[in-house]
Design goal:
Helices cover 5% and strands 34% of the residues. With 272 residues, the protein is mainly β. It has 2 domains: 67-160, Immunoglobulins (Immunoglobulin-like, Sandwich), CATH 2.60.40; 163-271, no CATH class. The longest helix is centred in the N-terminal third of the chain and has 8 residues, at 53-60. The termini are far apart.
Length: 272
Amino acid sequence: MPTPDSCEKIVLKEYVLSGEKGEDGIQGPPGETVSFPIAAENISVTNAGFSNAQEIFDFLLYVVPLIDSFTTGIYLFENRLASDPSADFDLSFSWSLNKGITSQTLTGPIEMTPVILDFEDRGKVATMTNFNTNRTFTLEIDDGEARPNSVTSKNLDIEFADKLYFGDSVIPGLIDEDFIKTLPNNLQKTLNLETISSTVVGTYWWIAVPIAYGAPYVSDNQTGFAIDMQNPIPFTLGNGNQFVNDLGHGEDYNLYRTTNDNLGAGIQILVA
């Protein structure tokens, strides 16, 4: 019996069968002449809720309106006296959207004079009266499509805070409000601060903070070691029983300084 290895290869030839052409079938009547392209609104559909293809395309390709940005450029203001005329000022709002809309509104607190927006506006100036406390402003837009997501809004928060006063100085003859205001300052809501100190013999590093912010923990950011600070140092108030900033706002402050002078040059101070 032959083995697979001993068998000869068998090649199957390909044959094409052909014959005479059959008779043509019965030709139907000519169809209507159609012009291309066909407008989507001229294509009828059977989908419930839609009368033509264009309505389906509009539904599937709908872009939800979004507020890409909404800003005044300033989000933190220094606390101020409510009756101070300087508390009245203008806020300049600007925003950007991802698509065209049909209407929009800008609303705010009672301190804001009402504004009217055109659908093409992408900015507005609002006048604030006696504006001296944290407030929220809302921009709302509508693309007029009457869909679940066709109206959207975005909030913008503006807050008020106090300054931290800090820096290098000798011990002045009179430690008072005026001395504190000669120190560099930052407007901020917390004690978190990084700064550089370069004190020599007779010079100390000082910091004045609102009591509401808590007691500062001061350290050398390079070594991680705490820097010794004196307990709150009494200072002379100007008028009244609180430290008063340049905008007439009164706040309780504590003043601290390093226990030792001459900390050295380029000390990276970290406050928390």
